[in-house]
Amino acid sequence: MAIIHLNCGTLRPLFTNFLAVTYCLLVETDDGLLLVDTGIGTFDYKSPSFRMSLFLPLVGSPRDLEETVVHQIVRLGFAREDIRHIVLTHLHLDHAGGLRDFPDANVHVHRREFEAANHPKKPMEVAYDKAQWSHGPRWQLHEAATESWFGFDAIPILPGLEPKVMLLPLPGHTRGHCGVAIESEGGWLLHCGDAASAYHRDADPHQHDASEQWMNFLPEGFVRYVIGKHFPRLRRLVLEHGSEIDLVSAHDIYAFKQHTGGS
Question: What long-range pairs does 112-118 form, CB within 8 A, spacing at least 24?
């Protein structure tokens, strides 16, 4: 069953040469199509909320409707109704913006993330935008880890689903932040959300060329505060199990180009 890598929101923040993607995955399962994250949605461009109207210019968004998930799946020959499940790493506005484009999908998220998004308290929680789920999604809340995945606690989202898809609790960037692990014929693909970053030497599991990492001026302590404490474990995962696991992070343009043949 295919896994398709999508950029659902190009980012070029003001006053930087930084270029990033908003990394989403489209997965064919035996219960229809499944999305990992939704990126920025059509409502965010056509009728942005106050938060989104501030966010889009700050990140240099091209506001390209053709980058939204719903437009991309139509180009691939699918219909929006084919999206049966959406699995979210977290509910920040650049990850959950496409929810309103798929009102009939089952939306899987960690219970702590759902609670944090609806009752924000901490500084990083200013990036939630309740307008993105004002339509009343079909929430499927997950909490108890029942399996171990390469040493990480794991929550199967639908027992018996093929391929297997699991939430891996990686709190830090947000209270209920998770990675999403997907089994494939060639091994596992892990979307680790914002628990790692390709743009800082200490937080990059793949250890790219430091000259390309524009955030290296930031101290590791600040990076750990923003994205959490899990990146050393994720780096070990790549070093020890790189032949079995392919890891991507939420805005990693390098991994995206590798998977899509981009330049």
Answer: 112/143, 112/171, 112/175, 112/176, 113/88, 113/174, 113/175, 113/176, 113/177, 113/178, 114/139, 114/141, 114/176, 115/175, 115/176, 116/91, 116/174, 116/175, 116/176, 117/91, 117/174
Tally of CB atoms within 10 A around 177: 29
Residues 52, 4: contact at Cβ < 8 Å? no
Q: What is the DSSP letter of 177?
A: -
- Contacts of 209-217 with C-beta under 8 Å, sequence gap 24+, read 212/254, 214/16, 214/17, 214/18, 215/18
How do the domains of the chain map onto residue ranges?
A: 3-260
CA distance 200 to 216: 5
Question: Is the bond into 232 cis (omega within 30 degrees of 0)?
Answer: no
Q: What is the mean pLDDT of each run of 10 residues along the chain (263 residues)?
A: 94 84 97 98 97 96 97 97 98 98 98 97 92 98 97 96 97 97 94 91 74 69 84 94 96 94 73
- For domain 3-260, give the fold: Metallo-beta-lactamase; Chain A (3.60.15)
